[in-house]
Amino acid sequence: MRESLAVIWAIGRKDLLLETRNKDIIVAVSAFALLVLMVFTFAIDINQVNAKLTGPGILWASIAFAGVTGLNRAFALELEGNTLEALMLAPISRDLIYVGKMFGNFLFLTASQIIVVPIFAVLFNLAVLRWEMLIISLLTTIGFSAIGTLFAAMSMRVRAREVMLPLLFLPVVTPLIMAAVESTSHVVNDGSWPEIAQWIQLALAFDIAFIVISAFIFQQILED
Amino acid sequence: MTKQDPLFALKVQDVVKSFAEVMVLRRIKFSLQPGEVAVVLGANGAGKSTLLRILAMLTQPDSGNIYIYGKDTTKNGPEARALTGSVLHSPMLYADMSVRENLTLFAELYRLKNINILIEKNAVKVGIQSKLDHRVRTLSHGFQKRAALARALMHEPQLLLLDEPESGLDSRSVSHLDNIVEEYRSSGRTILMTTHIIEHALEISDKAIVITDGHVHLESTTTCLNKSNILSAYSHALPKTSGDL
After folding, report:
1. Partner residues linked to B22 by β-bridges
2. Which end is more exposed in chain B, N or C (fewer Cβ atoms within 10 Å of the end residue's Cβ)?
3. What pLDDT score was predicted for residue B6?
4. B72-101: per-residue pLDDT in tens?
């Protein structure tokens, strides 16, 4: 277990090191998400009622769409130097490569949300910086990373991978986006914990199911 | 067969591989003893690189078995990979990380101890000690290839797989490579390499395996071979339209 965690950390830390040098992913994802938020602030009359009604949907749609850009880039980096194959040469179970890459993607998406969510709170004048929101963000980001890593790997050898990834990713994460939007909606409308918790449970179940399934499928993709 | 003879460093049994309609490897069969240095020779498209990718466990064969020191690569992948070091066509290094950072990452994935000492030792062995803190992107192809070789040697594998290792290397680097081959032979470890330079291959290896049209056309100790034997075996290859598979 300790050795597996060390391998996952080594792969995730490597992705983080490359990102601190290139600044490709976090900047692109944050900029894309902020642009979407800005467009909506101009398109919609952001009063207190509209903000609570549309804000959660706009927030999570912008993060999901922007996230695709980052997920694509995270795997493109491995393709450029054929380095995914170097990871495959190591005497480690291939599901650890999946979890390591997923961990890296989780870090990028989390870093982007640290930038995007406070700006969303200011633009929409909504009190989202609460601990319930932390749980929602965490579970949604884990789910996005789990599925995104799998589909990025699946589409990496496809000619039109930039097109393929959103086509695969967005329909599958729809239940997770729903759970995130509904729970965020309850948060901004001062909903009770049981109202929020039912959606958090859905997100948690989604994450567990997809991490297990994705780790299994990822191995098949690598060995194909 | 349930139990493999552990004396074989590498045993390849009836390996078949096709890509779409093209059958690249047709029941490939050969074995290597520990301490043996073998070269796989063949014309472009003969299937040498595909064979090495299968032995490195990057590609699955359609059928057949491979045993590395008795470990079945299908059933005991991680154990077999721990015994194997591979340098294939591409250096497979992170371009925006230094050579040291790359080697450290792979040492961690191989769960090695005393990583800094190992890095220094292998850097000297392949002649890249002055380039350890340079980013891979800034290095010439030759130095990148040497760094890839250092990565493959880090865990002191029992079986070293080299796909055209001398391509892009200058004569000094080739002599580093020859030293490594000699060190492997004398320490009872095994090397399987592909090459197009027949004279050099015959000079440094104990055994030659010539693949033509996906078959092992010739398998012999190099003492009984010369360049014309090899070229004559090449001529049995059927014409192919694709590049080196």
Report:
1. B19
2. N
3. 56
4. 998 888 999 999 999 998 999 999 999 999
Point out which residues pair with B84 in neighbouring strands: B159
| Contacts A80 to B, Cβ<8 Å | 95
Domain extent at residue A196: 2-223
Strand order in the sheet with B63-68: B22-32, B10-19, B63-68, B71-72
Residue A129: count other Cβ atoms within 10 Å of its Cβ: 12
Return the residue of A nearest to B86 by Cα: A89
Using one digit for the tens of pLDDT, what is the confidence trace for A51-97? Answer: 888 899 999 999 998 888 888 887 888 888 889 999 999 999 989 99
**Would you call A88 and B58 a contact, using CB atoms and an 8 Å cutoff?**
yes
Q: Identify the CA nearest to B207 among candidates B216, B198, B220.
A: B220
Token match 């190099």: residue?
Answer: B222
Mean pLDDT, rounded, for A164-187: 92
Q: Which residues of A touch B110 (CB under 8 A)?
A: 90-91
Do B97 and A18 lie within an 8 Å CB cutoff?
Answer: yes
Query: Distance from CA of residue B137 to its chain's centroid?
Result: 24
Q: For A35, left (φ over 0), alpha (ψ -120 to 50), or beta?
A: alpha
Helical packing angle, B115-126 and B171-186, nearest 10°: 120
Q: Which helix (H) or strand (E) holds B96?
A: none
Q: Say which residues have a Cβ less than 8 Å from residue A38's Cβ, sequence separation at least 6.
A: A123
- B1-83+158-167+181-240 in CATH: which number? 3.40.50.300
DSSP A89-101: HSSS-HHHHHHHH
Distance from CA of A82 to the nearest CA of B (A): 5
Q: For the beta carbon of residue B240, count every other beta carbon within 10 angstroms.
A: 17
Q: Three-class SS of residue B105?
A: helix
**Per residue in A97-126, is it b (16+ CB within 10 Å) or e — as a string?**
bbbbbbbbbbbbbebbbebbbeebbebbeb
ipTM: 0.86
